[in-house]
Amino acid sequence: MKSTIDGIVFKQMVLHGTAAVTLQKQKINDLNVFPVPDGDTGTNMSMTMATAAAELRKAAPETVEQAANICASALLRGARGNSGVILSLLFRGLSKGLKGCTVADGKTFAAAMQEGVGAAYGAVMKPAEGTVLTVARLAAKRAVEAAAEDNCIEHVLDEALKTGCEVLPQTTEMNPVLKKANVVDAGGKGYLVILEGMLSALRGEAMPEISEESAAEKADFAALSEEDITFTFDTVFIVRKTTNKPLEPLRAYLSSIGDSLVIGEDDEAFKVHVHTDIPGSALTEAQKYGTLELAKIENMRTQAEDLAAGRQAQSTDDLDAIEQELENSSMPASPQKRYGFLSVCAGDGIAAVFRDLGVDGIISGGQTMNPSTECILNEINRTPAEVVFVLPNNKNIIMAAQQCVGLAEGKEVIVVPTATIPQGITAMMNVDLEAEPEEIFQAMTASIESVATAQITYAARDSDFDGFAIQEGDYLALLAGKLFGTDRDITVLLKQLAEEAASMNAEFLTVFYGEDVTEEQAAQAEEIFSSACPEAELSLLPGGQPVYYYIISIE
Description:
Oligomer: single chain
Distance between the termini: 63 Å
Helix content: 40-55%
Number of helices: 22
Number of strands: 16
Mean pLDDT: 86
Strand order of the largest sheet: 13-12-9-16-14-15
Shape: globular
């Protein structure tokens, strides 16, 4: 058994843990009880861990302290969703506990696990039992006991994992929602999968293989001659998704205008490599699926000529290197005003509303597209203001936004806990730029209570939730974050929500219709609400949002 670990071993443990959770992310996603399509737990945890793995691959940490610091720093910035933030906090505390350590034995690592649990519990407003916090706490408790029995880190981690696996089934009984659905906590499961991967690394087991679409994104210009080059421009770009439309039509189009096509995607973005003579057309077509983030276009013919002349030809860089280069070159914006505002949202129409209300920047994201802490932080740094207010507009993004507080260079960051788009819009309508920061925050927060949010989406999975037997593909109506109704006919749900709005004596109604709703369908929805609430001031706006057919503000 391995008694101690150094930096290289800790690095390998994290890489193993990342591979393990990535392989099982869909199984973890399937444990999510709420059937609404969301940035699910497995996806958020695997993407969060991937940021740490990426940074550690670039490093050769000599000490366990160095490896833990690299891991914690990457996780802090890469955290996505509440589960990703909690995971980052567990590792941040672990890093704190390993401070000053060249190597770590069982007792040191167990104490560091306890430190991680403390950090996670301290950051969660209302810690609930039957979650990843419970699993992590009891696993760490057992780790400390095991270290007293045998100060061997492999023994300690093995015992912690065994206890975690015993506790996980108990989460079903601890949480009424989990009990009704007869599933264990998804976050707890994900955490144990990561620990299991870390233990496998300690035992010298082979790292799990992750099947990916593999193809070179870097052209080998040394092997090219002029006659070998069919298309001129080597084109590489990233698009941040704002729609759930399948990419097959884009793939077909790009194949028709070029070759050497590779498209890789995850839940939030896709990246493309293609050789073509019309790169502008490729970028224009791709933007029908989201927001262009990065692009690099290089002329392969001139590069081949450079090689033929004995000159060094610049090749298309690895996309991660391009991202890093751009991030390193982007300097924080100097404050030009006292207050700035950022909003997280998806959909051109909704983004336009926020801009009209004075928002400085839009962070693309929302349901299924939880931006990382680093994505939010980059936008904060680019905002030319002394005090930056952030509107997450989604309960699963609030914690990631809150991690930015204290990280922005020379800026004060204030996160307004908006959980929906209507709450964010209402908050912006209650901004007084002449007031002090705390007064603005209080006014924005208080205004949130005056608006109720209704939404209509679809069921991503079968579920028995809140007394509703839900089938995948059913329409779902949500009101104030809770399941309001389900039906195979969206009109039925619209009528039920309209009647509920009438019973609430709604004075103002705003209906944002999504990208999958036609103008004719939106007009029918408007008529339904207008008939039910004839005295209310009603606005119908094209939100363009994905996932949600309708987002309705009720005041």
